[in-house]
Design brief:
heterodimer, A: 309 residues, alpha+beta, Alpha-Beta Plaits, 2 domains, 11 helices, globular, B: 199 residues, mainly alpha, two-stranded antiparallel sheet, two-stranded antiparallel ribbon, elongated
Chain lengths: 309, 199
């Protein structure tokens, strides 16, 4: 399911077009040495890849999906649809969260768990809401994720939900030794759970704590299973793989808002297409005070925090 | 008209003739079907109705059994009383909105109780109450119309569902009500060891 990544290196060394050009190439010893050093000889694509790293054909994808759906049916006794919707043309997703409105009610956290089939025990949550001191501002050293008063918001505090920032330069993708995680054309960073080896390098690399590991066999009540899934999103995971927020890829690629946007009672969460000048997200970027979380790391998030007032 | 212009030219004032010809063409343009070239959009100021057409909102959250207001406020058995006073009715309404001088009839219409009214005196329906709120809260109204203030559901690439201001803000006490937070995440202290290690 990840054909682009492994194919990249060879795109720089063009396979020979004809036998003529090959002879020409072999004639120049210097070029041959250079070719040998870089490992980019004039090999044909098939010769170079040795039938590894082939892009799956449509039939093969169908075969994989059918197998997964059958396995989920056996495991949960329920028909689960595994979607493979590709990125939409001309769409790059962006997200904005209004820090002046969020009251820290954690409705988003639990709506996300339900929508995305996270494990209930051991507990996996993709959104973490940080309670912060107004006097300190956005300061991680004064953040408490375990607040539990009777009523929120509490006096003197504001709330900052943190989830995957869908970076344009994702450090997590950079460190993955097997190419099991990558950035899609619409900007969503995804994980192939069947390719992930569970080394957790990505978790160490992510400065936002946005990646979560299935330390144990995920438990998921059958009656709460969301059967509308996506291969790269909320399909049920297994023990030993990393997972993360995908902007609800199974919803947003169908034109719907993510589950956290739909549930937020204060309307703090805004979502849309960064490429559409008329979108809500562009209005926020053009008219509000916006900041990026840990901007100094140059991860270039597509998740923006703003002050709506 | 043409003869008139020619007569000018005969006098040798060709330049003035051309200017006049141009002027005549511009004046006659609407009749000659050239009107399409003149932008019409600036002709009319944007009307308020364009606001109401764009935005579909659900019905306002009126207290059950209270509407129509004219069931009691019929202007016959219950005459309108413009005096500021403590009411014998509607004691669920605790007015905590703006300055002390705020009063029912600032927003509710005295003669037609089924309606609200703007400062201009124009009567509006409860379904378009955002026009009333927008009189003072113009910045919020602008953000709301753009989809920034308040909750939107539906499709990011198409039809969205809006809410009225009053769905989230009680107009009589508009401060957003505190909520009970949902359960906190499990911390390091909550991890229990089982036989065979943590699972």
């Amino acid at each position: 399911m990840n054909p682009e990544k492994p194919l990249k290196p060879i795109s720089e060394c063009t396979p020979c077009a004809s036998s003529d050009s090959r002879r020409l190439f072999l004639g120049t010893a210097a070029a041959a040495v250079a070719g040998a050093l870089t490992g980019c000889g004039k090999l044909s694509m098939d010769e170079f890849l040795q039938h590894n790293f082939r892009e799956l054909s449509k039939a093969e994808i169908q075969h994989v999906i059918a197998r997964l759906e059958k396995e989920y049916q056996e495991k949960y006794g329920k028909a689960v649809q595994v979607g493979v919707d590709p990125a939409l043309q001309g769409v790059i997703f962006g997200y904005a969260l209004d820090l002046s409105r969020c009251i820290g009610c954690r409705r988003c956290v639990h709506a996300c768990v339900k929508e995305n089939n996270q494990s209930r025990e051991p507990e996996v949550q993709w959104i973490r809401v940080l309670q912060m001191d107004k006097e300190e501002g956005v300061n991680i050293h004064h953040a408490d994720p375990y607040y539990a008063p009777d009523r929120v918001p509490e006096e003197g505090h504001f709330y900052m939900p943190v989830q995957c920032q869908q970076c344009k330069k994702p450090p997590c993708v950079k460190v993955c030794p097997v190419g099991a995680t990558w950035q899609e054309k619409d900007g969503i960073v995804v994980v192939d759970y069947n390719w992930c080896i569970g080394c957790r390098y990505c978790m160490a690399a992510c400065p936002y704590g946005a990646r979560h590991f299935n330390w144990g066999e995920p438990t998921l009540p059958v009656e709460e299973l969301n059967t509308a899934t996506h291969y790269l999103g909320n399909r049920p995971r297994q023990k030993g793989v990393v997972e993360k927020c995908t902007f609800c890829i199974q919803r947003t690629r169908k034109g719907l808002y993510p589950a956290c946007v739909e549930i937020c009672p204060t309307g703090s969460r805004k979502f849309g297409n960064l490429m559409d000048p008329k979108s809500e997200i562009r209005y926020v970027l053009e008219n509000k005070r916006v900041f990026l979380f840990k901007e100094d790391l140059n991860t270039q998030p597509k998740f923006f925090y703003f002050y709506g007032v | 008209m043409v003869r008139f212009l020619i007569s000018f030219e005969r006098k040798g004032d060709a330049a003035l003739g051309r200017v006049l010809l141009l002027a005549v063409i511009i004046l006659l343009a609407p009749l000659l079907g050239l009107a399409d070239e003149i932008p019409k959009s600036h002709a009319q100021p944007p009307s308020k109705s364009s606001v109401t057409q764009d935005i579909e909102v659900p019905a306002p959250p009126l207290t059950e059994g209270i509407f129509p207001c004219t069931a009691c406020h019929d202007n016959k058995t219950l005459k309108p009383n413009a005096n500021r006073r403590s009411l014998g009715m509607h004691d669920e309404v605790q007015l905590r909105h703006g300055p002390e001088s705020r009063w029912c009839l600032d927003c509710h219409d005295m003669t037609d109780r089924n309606k609200l009214h703007l400062v201009s005196g124009e009567r509006i329906e409860f379904t378009t109450s955002y026009l009333l709120c927008g009189q003072c809260h113009g910045d919020k109204f602008r953000d709301w119309r753009s989809g920034i203030h308040g909750k939107r559901t539906g499709r990011w690439d198409g039809k969205k569902q809006y809410l009225l201001c009053v769905h989230c803000h009680n107009p009589h006490a508009p401060r957003f009500q505190a909520l009970q937070p949902m359960p906190k995440p499990k911390g390091p202290g909550d991890i229990k060891l089982r036989r065979g290690g943590a699972r």
